[in-house]
């Protein structure tokens, strides 16, 4: 009986009238939206929003599109291997070494306290290789140089020396590539995504609230238009309340959209993207210029000797 009394009390505390009004508003709003979508509402019966609001809407849409468009491309900087040659695969020894380390590490951690022999824990994981195009080029050139200069008489081989010089220059570029990507992640990608998820998202939600309020107002106007004399006064009050609500929500949305558009953060983030790329390409140009100058000297000397040998 006590439980039943509590249930009755909870039902008594419910404001059924308020809940009914919310349901009715939601239904009328949905009906109004459907009629507008199907072209069943005359244009002059749709409440016109302020021109300032519509202009701000267009600008925020463009800003949001710009954020999404750049994010689609620049997200590659979150993946180290975005320029890694697809033809290169991990060697069998590299894969086996990695698997062996993981198995040994698992066994050493999980067989303690059992009767099974515990293998010694590996001292350190096998060294991982960076998966970028400059790193791949550097490793290839370095290996090729070693293969040439370690042969008998190879210490004076110009191609071997040139490959070593090239490898050294490319390794500097590879390091700069990693620094560029880290800078872009921290100073462009993360804040750029944050702006999209916070201030722009809040402005979009405020606009959605304006849309809902406008639909409620136009639905209330239709109800007033079709109301019988007994319902006229109540329907008129609902229209006035809906008008006040729309004005308030429109002002809030305008303020939020202006705040988004005046925010200097996106411009600052874009500058950081350009700066990181400038530093990378400048470093790459400097490293290549130095390497190319030395390689050119070796090339000219080799060509001179070749032609001289052909003249005799």
Report what the structure shows:
The protein has helices at 2-13, 16-37, 51-74, 92-110, 133-149, 158-197, 199-226, 232-262, 265-311. It is an all-alpha fold and 312 residues long.
In short:
The protein is built from 9 helices and no strands.
Keywords:
312 residues, mainly alpha
What is the subunit arrangement here?
single chain
Compute the number of strand runs. Answer: 0
In sequence order, what are the helices and strands, one letter per element?
Answer: HHHHHHHHH
Beta-strand content estimate: under 5%
DSSP helical segment count: 9
Instruction: Pick out the low-confidence regions.
Output: 95-99
Question: N- to C-terminal separation?
Answer: 121 Å
Specify the overall morphology.
elongated
Main beta sheet: strand number and arrangement? none
The helix-and-strand class reads mainly alpha
The mean pLDDT is 84
**Proportion in helices:** over 70%
Q: How many whole angstroms does the radius of gyration measure?
A: 35 Å
């Amino acid at each position: 009986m006590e439980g039943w009394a509590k249930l009755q009390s909870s039902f008594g505390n419910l404001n059924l009238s308020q809940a009914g009004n919310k349901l009715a508003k939601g239904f009328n709003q949905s009906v109004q939206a459907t009629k507008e979508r199907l072209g069943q509402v005359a244009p002059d019966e749709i409440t016109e929003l302020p021109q300032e609001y519509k202009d701000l809407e267009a600008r925020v849409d463009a800003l949001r599109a710009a954020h999404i468009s750049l994010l689609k491309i620049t997200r590659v900087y979150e993946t180290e291997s975005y320029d890694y040659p697809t033809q290169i695969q991990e060697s069998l020894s590299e894969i086996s070494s990695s698997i062996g380390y993981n198995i040994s590490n698992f066994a050493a951690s999980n067989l303690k306290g059992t009767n099974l022999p515990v293998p010694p824990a590996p001292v350190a994981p096998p060294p991982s290789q960076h998966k970028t195009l400059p790193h791949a080029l550097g490793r290839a050139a370095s290996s090729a140089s070693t293969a040439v200069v370690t042969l008998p008489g190879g210490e004076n081989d110009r191609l071997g020396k040139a490959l070593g010089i090239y490898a050294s220059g490319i390794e500097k570029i590879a390091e700069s590539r990693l620094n560029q990507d880290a800078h872009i992640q921290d100073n462009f990608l993360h804040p750029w995504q944050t702006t999209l998820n916070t201030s722009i998202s809040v402005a979009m939600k405020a606009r959605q609230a304006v849309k809902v309020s406008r639909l409620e107002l136009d639905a209330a106007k239709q109800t007033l238009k079709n109301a019988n004399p007994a319902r006229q006064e109540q329907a008129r009050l609902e229209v006035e309340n809906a008008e006040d609500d729309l004005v308030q929500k429109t002002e809030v949305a305008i303020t939020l959209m202006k705040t988004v558009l005046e925010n200097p953060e996106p411009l600052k983030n874009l500058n950081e993207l350009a700066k990181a790329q400038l530093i990378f390409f400048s470093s790459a140009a400097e490293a290549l210029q130095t390497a190319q100058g030395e390689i050119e000297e070796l090339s000219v000397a080799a060509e001179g000797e070749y032609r001289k040998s052909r003249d005799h």
